[in-house]
Amino acid sequence: MAKKKHRKKNSKKGRRLPEEDARTEAMTVAWMLSTMVTCGALGIAGLVVLAMRLSGADPAALGTMRVIPSLLLAIATVTGTVSLILMGCTLAYRKYPPPRPVVIFSTATCCLPFIVHLALAVGQSS
Fold this sequence. Notes:
Blueprint: H1 22-55, H2 59-62, H3 67-93, H4 100-125
Helix pairs in contact: 1-3, 1-4, 3-4
């Protein structure tokens, strides 16, 4: 029988960050969930607008379908505002901030509904 070679266990363990307070973790989860809802509402609104334009149907024939993008934009605006507030609180209370790309993505996603509202307002005034 061959002898089994015993490997030395790696003495260096993965560096773990200290745990955050449960309230801070809950705030972070709420921030990420509201960011994802904002992103989803904007994406679905964009797909509905694209589908309506590609269908070539008369706007009067679409009926209540015309309301869906406006409703989703309103939802994205509310959840984006909540997400921006939660992001500020999360960044203030966490011991270790989240990764910078996450913060940048969240900020861009949550500001996008306001940019769309501004573009729609400028388009209607012209």
